[in-house]
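Discussion board: Methods & Data

I've been asked by a reviewer to show the raw model output for two of the constructs in my manuscript, not just the figures. I'm not sure how much to include, so I'm pasting the format here to get opinions. Each protein appears as its amino acid sequence followed by a line of discrete structure tokens. Is this the kind of thing reviewers expect to see in a supplement, or should I convert it first? Here is construct A:
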Amino acid sequence: MPVPSYRVPVKVARGTYSNLSSNVGSLEEGEICYANDENAIYVIEGGALTKATADLSTSSIGDLSDVDTTTAAPTDGQLLKWNNVNSEWEPGDILLSDPSPALSADLDVVTYYITTTTTNGNIEVAANGTGSFVVRGNTNSGKLVLNCETNTHGVSISSPPHSAAATYDLVLPGTAGTANQVLKTDGSGNLDWVDQTAGVSSIDDLSDVDTTTVAPTDGQALVWDNANSQWEPGTVSGGGGSSARSTVTQTTASLANGAAANATFSSTGKSGQFIKITTDRAAWVTLYNTIAARTADSSRLETVDPTAGSGVVLEVITTGADTVQVTPTAGYYNDESTPLSELYAKIVNKSGAASTVQVDIVLLPLEA
């Protein structure tokens, strides 16, 4: 449409909003006014200024009256979220805008970390109910790595490999324990702190070895004493057909005069020949081929000869420190169900006073 050649100019009251407002009584109803300090147009309605246009000076979202991007400047990736308390839109993070965020797919942190800007703040992971925090495996078993403070090295805890088919729980103790204690398990995964058992520093520290009662001499070895269920020093004879004679010794504890004690001579060979017997004081010494034979003969009097076939292989009576030559030579053998390299003795103190009694037997083992 062509511009008419005759135009009537429209007069508009101009001035600051404050000036227009203070002189609104001189303006007519419906009159248009321009507030030059606001760059906005007003209309007189009901004797008051009514804005007819938006603020023509608005050039960014932060200029809007219900948007605050000044108090907290936005950072990369943030969005505007509504603050109901301040009745305005403010910059905020995407996750913080959702009070209960839920993933719909795997979360890929790419090359970033899960962290917090809270001073000394914790990062907590909470499972639901009896659920667990699980470190999944991939090409290797699940591994938890604890780094040093500069993240240049660390230690790790790994699950056993798939081939182990391992499924178990380890429950830590309720306390930190005391110095030098170690962790032990009850076999069901419950761990506890216990004191360390002192290590074995010598062979005599072993519960089944006795090298104190009779100290070993040069060339002896440990031999088994079936009666005492322990290893003791003894002289090792040769194998079958050996002609090497040896000496075996036993010493009783202190015995009252006339009292008896049992003893076991080891390293005798399963069979052999007696050569001589020495006592360090008056004694009655009886040797048997089984423990049962010694037990059955325990009540026999010194003046009564042993019954033939009763298991007595040799008997001597001395009147003091004496050596009895066994002539003619007498043989012996162990007759237990599993033959052992042992002879069993009953030793009676006949010295006239309480004393120990030492008995030395020189013999020739024939069967190792």
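Construct B, same format:
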Amino acid sequence: MSADRARGRILAAARALLADRPFSELTVGALMAEADLARTVFYRHFEDLPSLAPELLPDADDPLVDRVLRSGLQPPAEVVREMVDGLVAVFSEHGRLLRAIDDAARQDPAVAERLEGALVGPRALIERLLRAAPNPPAQPAESARLLMATHRAYLLDTFGAGVAPQDAPAQARAALLALWERLLA
């Protein structure tokens, strides 16, 4: 089996297991049994379970912030719409997985450290948007951290249980866009 295929099976197995258990209960043995691969294959691809966490993000292969930047959108309002649409789509589709990863990061400093690397790009984009606002905050970097935490908490609260009302994506999109409209005004 190719290395890419084995890695894909490991990631798919981890996502499947995390749909109904917390990250803290994930073991390499259970993961590899689910992937139907030998335990040693795991260590060819990952140092440990915390190193797996960033790879589990639904957009790890093509991060949302990269897609937004590639879109070539210039006006901040357009960038925000693209970003919010992407966030709502990812959280509404993968809420339970994202809740499991978030829980793991709060309980395991190694997971939190690994995930921090995945947040550098999104935080920089938000900071850039805030700096370009007509009335930028005094501390754009800290405000970007605050907004990321707020977005994450709100979206996990809305979609993290894996069951949300049918209109939840539209309501979440409207709420986040209203917040950003005020920030960019």
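Answer (T.O., handling editor elsewhere):
This is acceptable in a supplement if you add a one-line summary per construct. For B, something like: The domain at 64-184 is CATH 1.10.357 (Tetracycline Repressor; domain 2).
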